Amino acid sequence: MADQEEESYEEESYEGESYEEEGHSSDSFTEVTHQSWGSRLQEQASKSVIGFVMFLAAFPLLFWNEGRAVDVAKALEEGKGAVIPVTSDAVDASNNGQLIHFSGEATTDEQLADLDFGVETGALKLRRTTEMYQWDEEKEERKEKTSGGGEKTVTSYKYRKTWSENHIDSGSFRKRAGHENPAAIPYESDEYVADRIVVGAFQLSPSLIEKIDAFEEMRLPANAVEQIGGRTVHRTGNSLYVGDSPSSPQIGDLKVRFEIIPTETEVSVVSRQNGSRLEPYLSKTGTVELLQVGLASADLMFNAAEEELAMETWLLRIVGIAMMAIGLTMLFKILETVIDRIPFVGIHIGTVVGVGTTLIAILIALPLALLTIAIAWFFARPIVSIVLLVLAIGGFVGLRKFGDK
Prior knowledge:
Elements: H1 2-21, E1 28-35, H2 37-82, E2 84-85, E3 99-107, E4 112-114, E5 119-121, E6 123-145, E7 151-164, E8 190-193, E9 198-199, E10 202-203, H3 206-210, E11 216-217, E12 227-228, E13 231-236, E14 239-242, E15 254-262, E16 265-274, E17 277-279, E18 281-282, E19 287-288, E20 290-293, H4 298-339, H5 346-377, H6 382-404
Parallel strand pairs: 2-3
Antiparallel strand pairs: 1-7, 3-9, 3-16, 4-5, 6-7, 6-8, 6-15, 9-10, 11-15, 12-13, 13-14, 14-15, 16-17, 16-20, 18-19
């Protein structure tokens, strides 16, 4: 194995150099590596273990997701029947402990400040977004099977400069020389939030404040800093540019913009009253606490929450089914690698086996997922559970007929 790996490395280096000598840009090059059948088999065995773990992990994820969906749905149903409308102008002590709904303007008397750039404003939230000019690596692989069960990988690398809010670690680049990024983004993106926000006579809880997300562009004040960290700060429209020249960006230059949620933003709230403070309402199966920007009735807010729950539930269902199918595909992939070893015909048969095992993995994953979901719903929605069980059984019957063929 050591000899095989060393030979592979020498060929990889030679191929990379030959492409550059043929006139390719220094920011784009291709390398070729070879992997023996034994090495592929060993690697695929490890992936099969990972696939099996992924397959098993999908079951508790699906089960938990359905249980969560049932609990939240029941909590919303209970809250919809318990909520009472009030006005935000005054606190009625007789409503203490009740789930209330009201609309009004969210305000604060606090000043929020970004001390780094000298920006200060009266707002509910102040958000700084920082982007840095950096090198980015694009990697594209193409695998080709070779005789004897081996595999050739052709990898193309491209390097380009881009603006990104996230730091790109150039230490992991295949070709680091000439593509170095700073170690971190100075003055990273940040958010400042007023501690006390009220709607009329009611003070919002931190979890309600977190739900306010109606950001809009902020007009920069005239006294924003002109230098930071020894570097010049330019005003470009309603943003700041840290660097020598906005028209000629260099690696490490920054673009900074600011957004706010202005005070007197209208919101609608469903929450539990505790004096003048608001807090989550505890139902039998979970908590209820809703906030929507703008004027909205209680029914509209609960309907929106139910739609959001349905979207989240289906998304996690798809994730769980995909985990099952991908895990089984990784588990079965070792069969394709073994068959590739057969002289003359192994490459072609192995490809067919690969497609077949992927299809089988999907056919196994779907009924198993339906069965798991059905079990999770049995105590909450028996009829739905029975329907899903029938579908799961039908899937297993169809899989058996496919297997017989």
